[in-house]
Amino acid sequence: MNNIKNIIFDYGNVIFNIDFNRVAEAWKKLGITNANEFYGHRQQDDVFNALERGEITPAAFRDRIRALTHQPNLTDEQIDDAWNQIFIGIPAGNHELLLKLKDKYRTFLLSNINAIHYDYVHDYLKREFDIDNNEHLFEKIYYSHLVGKRKPGEEIFEQVLQENNLNPTETLFIDDSPQHLETAKKLGMQTYLMTAPDNIQQYFKTNGLL
After folding, report:
1. Which of 157, 110, 100 is nearest to 11 (CA)?
2. How many other C-beta atoms can be found within 10 angstroms of the C-beta atom of residue 52?
3. How far apart (Å, rounded) are the C-alpha atoms in residues 173 and 157?
4. CA separation for the pair 112, 177 (Å, rounded)
5. 11 with 113: CB under 8 angstroms?
6. Could you write out the DSSP letters of every residue in the chain?
7. CB atoms near residue 166 (< 10 Å)
8. How many C-alpha atoms does 39 have within 13 Å on its Cβ side?
9. What pTM was estimated for this model as a whole?
10. Which of 79, 99, 149, 199 suits a disulfide with 156, CB 3.0-4.6 Å?
11. Taking CA 7 as the corner, what is the angle to CA 4 and CA 11, rounded to the nearest 5 degrees?
12. In Å, what is the CA distance from 179 to each residue of 50, 86, 128, 193, 200?
């Protein structure tokens, strides 16, 4: 990594550990047998993308899930609880690392997220860390459902770069999805694919970026 001045972080499986398989298991417990037809990390029904772009309401999302699963009697709570099973937790030390990095670099959060997960994350942060949000950890945060764009579209990357006057060649983007990294590379950014068991604490220690 050369001449890094800015770091853009993904959230899921970079800062907050998640597991898509947990959601699939939760669907099964609700009697949903066709989850693999509409839900997955790499490919999924467009209702998930629409929710992440803020184009539909949580209520419309839940109605679509009922239709996709052929389970009209699923309650809002059942759908939300199953959908939120994706979250595992934030490893101890991650927040402290982010604060250290913020002192040395311009740091940003760029997350594909949705209104249901947004509420869950903020409840989790309050419950586990007694903080209201992630605002103090970064210079600026970009949540897809609030800006109306999502990765891997170029538009959301360009918004982060342009609004903050970032030089792409001096910017490191860390994400767990190869397709997102491809867009960042196309725009001239340096990238790193975060894959387990690797983690940000180990990455920054071993690469001399602290």
Report:
1. 110
2. 23
3. 10
4. 11
5. yes
6. --S--EEEE-SBTTTBEE-HHHHHHHHHHTT---GGGT--SS---HHHHHHHTT-S-HHHHHHHHHHHHT-TT--HHHHHHHHGGGEEEPPTTHHHHHHHHHHHSEEEEEE---HHHHHHHHHHHHHHHS-S-SGGGSSEEEEHHHHT--TTSHHHHHHHHHHTT--GGGEEEEES-HHHHHHHHHTT-EEEE--TT--HHHHHHHTT--
7. 17
8. 22
9. 0.95
10. 149
11. 155
12. 18, 20, 32, 10, 20
The distance from CA 120 to its chain's CA centroid, rounded to whole angstroms, is 13
Burial of 62 (0-12, 13-18, 19+ CB in 10 A): buried
Distance of alpha carbon 88 from alpha carbon 134, whole angstroms: 17
Using the structure block, give the residue that is written with the tokens 């869950």.
Answer: 120
Strands 6-9 and 106-111: parallel
Cα-Cα-Cα-Cα dihedral sign, residues 127, 130, 132, 135: negative
62-74 per-position pLDDT tens digit: 999 999 999 999 9
**Which band of pLDDT confidence, cut at 50, 70 and 90, is reported for residue 39?**
confident
Tokens of 124: 């989790």
Residue with tokens 């759908």: 79
Q: How many residues does the chain have?
A: 210
Instruction: Tell me which residue of 167, 164, 148 sits closest to 156, measured CA to CA.
Output: 148
* pLDDT per residue as tens digits for the range 140-162: 999 999 999 999 999 999 999 99
CA–CA gap between residue 166 and residue 160 (Å, rounded): 8
